[in-house]
Amino acid sequence: MSENFDIEIPPAFEHLAMVRSVLSTALEAESVLKEERLQDLRLALSEATTNAIEAHNRSDTEANVRIRITVANTKVTVRVTDQGDGFDPSKLKKHPPVTDPERLEFERGLGVTLMRRLTDSCTITQTKKGTTVTLVVQR
Amino acid sequence: MSVLVIEPTFEVAEYGRWAVMRVTGEIDMATAPRLRQHVQTVTARKPAGLVLDLDRVGFIDSTGLGVMVGAAKRMRMIDGGFRIVCSQNHLIHLFEITRLNEVFDLYESLEEALTSVEGVTVDGAGNPDGVAT
Question: Is the ipTM of this complex over 0.85?
Fold first, then answer.
C-alpha cells in the first residue's frame, strides 16, 4: 500500500521552499523517515527541482514542474518531472580534487553529486518530452 | 498562489579587522544571489578575514555552497582568511559528502573561529566583542 502527494509549481525558484515544506509535512506526519534521512531527501528534492526549473527557463517554457512523493511501506520515492531541454549527467565537468587550488573556480555542478550521495537511488531518465529524476530513500 | 519563502537575513559585524556575517534562514537558488551580493559587498572592503556564521541557517543547497566557494576564492585573492561557523549536524554532513570540509576551515562556534584573530577580545560569557556595521 502506498500514498501519493502531488505538487505542481510554475518554473520559478521562489517555489523551492514550498516544495521542501510539502515534503517535510507529508513525511513528518507519521515519522516516515528519521530526521537525518528526511533532511537528506529534502536537499535532494530541492536540487532536482532546481534543475527542473532551470531546464524550463532554458527552454523558455512556462509549463509547471511536476513532483510526486510516494510513501510506501519500505521506501519513499520522489519523482521530479520537467518538460525542459534535458541534460546529460555524464557530460558534467568533473571538479578538481579538493586539495587543488583550481577547485575554487567551480561554484556550480554539485547538485547531481548531492542527489546521488544523499539518496539510496537516483535515476535520471530522459525522453523527448523532458527529464524525470527519481529519488528513492529506504525507510 | 501563495508562496512560502523563509527569507534569509545577513547581519555583518566587525571584529578587529575581520568581518563576521551571521546568516539566518534558507539558502537556495532563490536566495543565494542575496548571499552572494552581501559577500561581495563585505569582501570589497578587503577585511583581514571573513567569518560566515551559519549556525542559524536551516537549509543550504549546492548553490549556497557555490557562493561559499566564491567567497573563499575572493578572500584568497586579497590574502584574507575565510572561516565558517557551523555546528549543525546536517550542514556538517553536507560539507563532508562534498569534501568541502577539506577546503574550508570549519569551527563549532564564533568564539572558536575568532580565538586567534588579532585585536579581538572575548568577554566573560565567551562572546567576542564586535561592532555591527
Answer: yes
